[in-house]
Every structure is written in C-alpha cells, then in structure tokens.
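Checklist before submission:
- one chain only
- standard amino acids only
- sequence pasted in full

Submission:
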Amino acid sequence: MGLGFIRDTYQRWGAEDPFYAVLTRHNRAGNRWDPEEFFAHGRAEIAGVMDYLDSLGIDVRGGSALDFGCGVGRLSQALADHMGEVVGVDIAESMVDAARAHNRHGERVRYLVNTRPDLSCFRDASFDLVYSNITLQHIPPRYARVYIREFLRVVRPHGCALFQMRSGPRIEPGTLRALFYRMNREHLRHVLQRLKGRLPYEIHFIAREQVEEIVARAGGTLADVVELGGRRRRNYRYCVVGSPKEAASGHRAGPSPDGPAHG
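Returned file contents:
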C-alpha cells in the first residue's frame, strides 16, 4: 500500500472526476462542478488564510509559496493573487495535467509531480509560505510525519508553514496498536469501500501532541493552532514559523530548477 496506492487512486480520480476528488460534494459527482464556482472556493479560502496570517503579524505577501497536494490548482491559483511565485506539487500526474490546463497566471505558477516520500526536489529555505489543506489526512502517518518535517526544511527563516491534519489518540510507531491502525486504515477500509462500489481512499490522523513534537524536533516554532472541528475526529490547522537561529545564516535559496525526481 502506501504512497503507490495513493498515487494510483488520485491518478484515476484526476482522469475521471478531478474537481470532485478535491472538493467532495455529493451533488457534484460526475464532473458536475462548475469551474468558476470551484475556483471561487479556493479564492475565498486563501483570502481567509492571508487575513489570518496578517492577524498573527506574519507577512509573506509577494513571496514564494508551495501548495502541497495541489490537485487541480484550486489553491495554487488563489495563492497567486497574493504571492509573487507559486509552486504546486502533487503525487498524481493526471491532477497536475489538469492544474496546468487551468493555470491563469502564466510562469508565476508552476506545477510539479512528486511521487517521493519527501520534498528532496526542493532545496532548503525555498519558500516564504508552505500551505497544505485536506491533503495530509489522506497520507499514512509514517509518510505524513516526514512531510511535516520537510515543510519546515523548505520554509525560509521567519516564513510560515500552515497545514491541516486530523487528530486522534496517540499511536506510537512500531507498536501493536500502530499495526492494527495500519491494517484498518490501509487494508480493511479499502475492502469495504470496494464492496460499496467506491474508489478507495484513506483517512488518517496524527495526535495533536505528536504533531507538536514533530514541529519542535524539526526546529520550528508553533505560532498558533486552530481547531477546525470535525464530525468524528478533532481537526487542526497548525501555523509554524521558521527558527530564528536559522535566520542568521541568511540562506535564501530558491526552488530547485531541476524539479522532482519521479518514483
């Protein structure tokens, strides 16, 4: 299972019903999303994000942004209204192809396919803002933990990583409980969804305290945590700023021109 399954799932979603895969509304299945309405959702979300960052005194406007799990570019296009450069990255080539087709900002927005379990396609301190919403929750925790650390590696000193993740009971990697979690979330769920005639996808969580520990070990500073709610699990948005210690190095490398290595 793992990232290969996720890539195959969203590759198929991207080819068959990409907007619905990003914003799952039951009355929009079967390619019934109006593109203008779909992208308007992204503009409203990012406008709220920028106001939120302003309220925290975090100024990233006009800088470079990474949209992790960009899908068809709903948020990348909106970020370009506020940022000077945006890079959207996704695991599915079909999603990236659709994002490029809907790009309205020319070379200021680039889309890349990355199937690796990290962000080694980007150098350290590449972005002023790293943004990810409704993406990490679909990635097994053993990979999501790595991506969170990578967010803090690629964000610039005093930049910001803003990401959403569902929370739940603390589960320690390598334990019997972790094995049961994996069997349930990555295997049993797939079987049940197929029996219902649905294309399987995964829903995961990492306990809030564990996310905060990952951030601290990676050298980030947690500026704010917002509870977003949720029907079954608590859902949080984490706002993390880079370490002031790193700022002394003055390292401000840009995104790697080589693009990602495809797995």
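Reviewer check: Residues 245-263 have pLDDT under 50 and may be disordered.
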